[in-house]
Amino acid sequence: MSLVIASVPAGHVYVRHLSPPTPDTSTVVRLPDPPSGDSADSPWWPPRMLTAAWVDEHAPDFDVLHVHFGFDALSVDDLRDLVAALRRHDKPLVLTVHDLRNPHHDAPDLHDAQLAVLVDAADALITLTPGAAATIRARWGREATVLRHPQVVPDAWVRRPRTTHDEFMIGLHAKSLRANMDPIPLVDAIVDALPGMPGARLRVDAHTDVMTEGYPRHDAAFAQHLRSLEGDGALELQVHDYFSDDELWGYLQDLDVSVLPYQFGTHSGWLEACHDLGTWAAAPDCGFYAEQRPCLTYAADGPERTASLVTAVRTAYANWRTGGTAPRASLGTRHTERRLLAAAHEHVYAAALDRRLACTS
After folding, report:
1. What is the biggest distance separating any 2 CA atoms in the chain, rounded to whole angstroms?
2. Tens digits of residue pLDDT in 51-88
3. What is the spatial distance between Cα 328 and Cα 332, in angstroms, rounded to a whole number?
4. Is residue 141 left, alpha or beta, with left meaning phi > 0 and alpha meaning psi from -120 to 50?
5. Which of 36, 49, 268, 310 is surrounded by the most beta carbons within 10 Å?
6. Residue 55 buriedness (CB in 10 A; 0-12 / 13-18 / 19+)
7. What ranges do the domains of the chain cover?
C-alpha cells in the first residue's frame, strides 16, 4: 500500500533525495508540484499546496502534507487557514524545520510567528541536527525527529575526482546579498591575509542584480568596493546571474575552501554540496552548521569575526600545503543515508497518519 505525500516543494533537491537511490523500493509516492504560473524560474513558487483552496480540492489525492520550504510566502492567517483545511479533511501535517531563522528576513518576528502556527499544528516534526531539535524543545515544548540532510550533488559529481592544481582557491559567493549576509569585512580580512599564504587566491562572486545599477537589489557601495579591490589585483571578481546546477557544482569543486558569509542561519544545503564535492566549507558558529557535516568555523559576529575567519582559512591552507584534502562524502555512504532517510520518513508518515486518525475516531 502506497503513502501519497504532498511535499512542499516536491521538486527541491532535498525532497527528491529523500527517496532511496532505487525508488521502486519505497512505498512513498510524492505528488508533483502544482505549477504556480507566476515564475518560470521557480515554477512551484508561491506554493499552491499551502493554500486552503488546494487542500479542499485535492484532499482525496494525498495522505499527508509535508512542509519543507515556501511557507514564508504566506501570512500567519493564511497558515491558520491551511491548518483548518487539513483538519477539515483529517489530513496530518508533517513539518521539517530547516530554518529556525529565515536567512532572507532582516528581523525574526514574521518567521517566528509562521513557525509557531506550523509547529503547534504539526502531527510530527523533523529537523536536521540535535541542536535544532533542542531549540525546538526549548521554544515550543515539542520533540522533533533528527534526520540528516541527504546528498545535494548528483551521483556523477559525487564520483568525480577533484583536479589537482598549484594554487589554493578561496571562494566567497555573495549571491544577491540576502539579509543574513555581511561579506565585505570578510573579503577585506582575506585580502589582508593573502600575502601570508603564498599561492592563495581569492575569488568573489556576486549576482548581476547586486552589481549592476538600475537593478532593484543593486548595492552601489558593495559594488564599488569589490570593483576597487579587483582593480588593485587583490581578488578575482565574477559577476553573473544564478548558476545552473552543473555550473554551481563545477564552481564549488574548483575551490579549496568556500566561505559562507552569514551572520545568522540554521542549516545549509551549500555546506552539504561542499561535503559531496570535497571542498572545505568555512561556516559561522551560529545555527548548527558544525553539527551538519565536518567544516571549519568562525565567529558569526563580534570582534573575533574576521580574525577567526582568517584562522579557519589558514587551517584549510595548511592542510592543502601538506597534501591534505577536506572530508568528502562517498557515494556509497550517501546512498546508505538515502535508504535510511527514506525508511525513516516512511515511518514518520505512517505514525502521523495513525495519530491523526486516532484523534478523529
Report:
1. 72
2. 999 999 999 999 999 999 999 999 999 999 999 999 99
3. 12
4. left
5. 268
6. buried
7. 3-151+335-360, 155-321
| Residues 6 or more apart whose Cβ sits within 8 Å of residue 159 | 331
How would you classify residue 70: left for phi > 0, otherwise alpha for psi between -120 and 50, otherwise beta?
left
The answer to whether residues 329 and 158 touch, using CB atoms and an 8 Å cutoff, is: yes
Cis peptide before 303 (omega within 30 of 0): no
Those residues with Cβ within 8 angstroms of residue 122's Cβ, 6 or more apart along the chain or in another chain: 93, 94, 95, 142
Kind of pairing between the strands at 93-97 and 124-127: parallel
Whether pTM > 0.90 for this model: the answer is: yes
Q: Which of 139, 168, 195, 170 is nearest to 281 (CA)?
A: 170
Let me know: does 73 contact 236? Beta carbons within 8 Å: no
Q: Which residues of 178-191 are buried (b: 16+ CB within 10 A; e: fewer)?
A: eebbbbbebbebbe
Residue 311: name the closest of 302, 323, 299 by CA. 299
Which CATH architecture group holds 155-321? 3-Layer(aba) Sandwich (3.40)
Are 3-151+335-360 and 155-321 the same fold in CATH? Answer: yes
Assign a CATH topology to domain 3-151+335-360. Rossmann fold (3.40.50)
In whole angstroms, what is the distance from residue 58 CA to residue 195 CA? 61
The pLDDT of residue 43 is above 90: no
Q: Which residues, including other chains, have CB under 8 Å from residue 192's CB and lie 6 or more apart?
A: 310
In whole angstroms, give the CA distance from residue 276 to residue 301. Answer: 28
Find all residues with CB under 8 Å of 263, minimum gap 6, and list them.
180, 181, 182, 284, 286, 300, 301
